[in-house]
Amino acid sequence: MSNSPFQRGQLNRIRLHVLPTQRFKTFSISLYAGLPLHESTVTSAALIPFVLRRGTASTPETIAFRERLDDLYGAGFGFDVYKRGDSQIVQFRMDVINDRFVSSDRPLLAASLQLLGEVVTDPVTDNGVLRPKYVEAEKDTLRKRLEAIINDKIRYAAERCLEVMCADEPYRLHPLGRMEDIDAITPASVTKAYRDWLATAAFDLYVVGDTTLDEVKALVAEAFRHNAGEPADYGVSSASKPVKEVQNVVERMDVTQGKLNLGLRINTGYGDDDYPAALMYNGILGGYPHSKLFLNVREKASLAYYAASRLDGHKGICTIQSGIEIGNYEKAKTIIQEQLEQMRSGSYSELEMSQTKAMIANHLRELQDSANEMIGFDFNAVLSKRERSAMQLLQEVQAVTPEQIAAVARKAELDTIYFLRDNKEG
């Protein structure tokens, strides 16, 4: 991987990615832990980071754990659980100020990695299992997170569209797991899941800041004690799947506004040569306020409260979300499909091309101002096994022609039309 500014290394099961730089006043640390999405593990694996953040063997009480972060000059600590392609990924993040800017009596990068290492490999246990009161409390947290998705009808419709579309694929699963699994989880079962996770997950540790690969390697050797073995690999999920027939699903709930979502298989993934053209395709279709969906469905026809599209480059899926009056279903569906036809015809105005290129370019340039964004961008390369620097991708996007976008549009196949509507008849 030569095009990346990151230096690569390996320590047992952890792949290391270090960007030595004096541009930032902080050290940004991210640890990614990835497992294949699977219904037997997805809920327990989602619960693990919630429990781990409560305390470590040396700092078992949550309050004391937070005080440790305060002692690191208010270091930030957080985590996310999401999916990329067919992998469920937990990302732990820490940000801590560089010692040069404070009068610290110990190296703050070392102390931060020590804390992260304890969180991941040495959590608080009682009688050999993860602390039961933390497990029970965090089961509630997870339950509330999943309930929040059901209550947020925009998110719910987006998730349901993917669930229907990918019914026979791991991607149908939500990275936070399934509500119906939570009750059955016990401290013993989540402890076993945690040990399996520690033994089998793919671990990638990123550090951006004024340090070196050698220094990070030495600190990780100290901080992560239980990681013998070789790094696990991410299976690159196939970004193409033929569509046999378009699925039409109407679901009824107590809603006042209809949610019309369409799922397309664009059969182009992050690692493919035509990915820059797919970025342009999504941008012109519905990625930005100047896009076709926004202008034609929302502004001109006044058919939608919102209309936008999203691209998942690791799965080769583009989804369209819109909020509409329930009675406008047929009209909205027709006009959205007209935009898809327009995309296939290859007729994009100069303005659409230049504005979309400018929006993508801005985003790629802004990445350079955020250590965490640079980490996220580089991790895409690790996941897809396709190395591109942000500047390289920027050049590739600038060179995309209307013909290349139309070629992506013609490969794209409508797979699912999902409509969430009210309970009234009609």
Automatic annotation (TrEMBL):
Domain of life: Bacteria
InterPro entries the record matches: Metalloenz_LuxS/M16, MPP/UQCRC_Complex, Peptidase_M16_C
Domain spans labelled Peptidase M16 C-terminal: 185-358
TM region(s), chain numbering: none
Gene3D superfamilies linked to this entry: Metalloenzyme, LuxS/M16 peptidase-like
Pfam families found in the cross-reference section: Peptidase_M16_C
PANTHER family documented for this protein: INACTIVE METALLOPROTEASE YMFF-RELATED, METALLOPROTEASE
Name of the molecule in the record: Insulinase family protein
Species per Swiss-Prot/TrEMBL record: Paenibacillus artemisiicola
